[in-house]
Amino acid sequence: MDYIKAIILGIVEGLTEFLPVSSTGHMILVADLLNFTGERAKTFEVVVQLGAVLAVFVLYFKRFIGFLKFDFSKGAGLNAIHIALGMIPAGVMGVLLHGLIKQYLFGTTTVLIALIAGGVLMIAAEQYQKRHVPSAETVDDITYKQAFGIGIFQILALWSGFSRSGSTISGGIFMGTSQKAAADFTFILSVPMMLGATGVDLYKSRDLLVPEDYGLFLLGLVVSFVVGLIAVVTFINLIKKLKLSWFAYYRFGLAAIFFLFLM
Predict the structure, then answer these.
(1) How far is CA 254 from CA 74, 107, 108, 113, in A?
(2) Which residue from 17, 93, 14, 53 is spatially nearest to 188, judged by alpha carbons?
(3) Is-annotated flag, keyword Membrane (predicted)?
(4) Structure confidence by residue, pLDDT tens digits, 230-252
(5) The pTM is what?
(6) Contacts of 149 (CB under 8 A, 6+ apart)
(7) Could you tell me which residues come within 8 angstroms of residue 174 by beta carbon, excluding any fewer than 6 positions away?
């Protein structure tokens, strides 16, 4: 049964990682329904996210190789400094508050609250977008200041259920980027952020990793990778074009359904 649960959670992760609806929130809620909880489940949730992130790395491979050129000249577009600035705020806070986050922000109730809070932020960003002309139409137009500002908004994603893509896309809009540019930056930024977060989490949870679970974790990772590849290609244009409020209303509906179920 655990292997069936791993497949289900891998599919959920792969489908939701790239939509502003919170993949972690979905996995926590679905895992609760499947009765797959506890420290072992929390570690599994981190590992399975890595599969979806690797899908982004494969699809944006040329862009990541380009960062190795370290071309910081004017007009060169997005570079490694942008990525570093986008990572620093959430990276520092994640390391400092790792224990508190795992203890207090990975529960079903906190996820439901985060789904609503994140939806409100997205609606606010959409309203802001209607009244302001973006200064960065594409991801290569993003400035260092905007990259750092988006990184600050990404701190909200440490709250499970808030959504990494939801917080960064909304943050990008508030910082003056188009929704398209913010979405591209979000996908690219997710790779080093999730690799770092997974590494830290696995190191701190190393005592919970036992050989008997390796197959289970690997299965979930592979499923999320395959589904993630399909999802990125399918959803990437969807996220750039659809109104953020549509995703927000979905989040509200999901929170209401699970709240009623739990009651």
Answers:
(1) 45, 16, 12, 11
(2) 53
(3) yes
(4) 888 777 777 767 889 999 999 99
(5) 0.84
(6) 171, 174, 175
(7) 125, 128, 149, 153
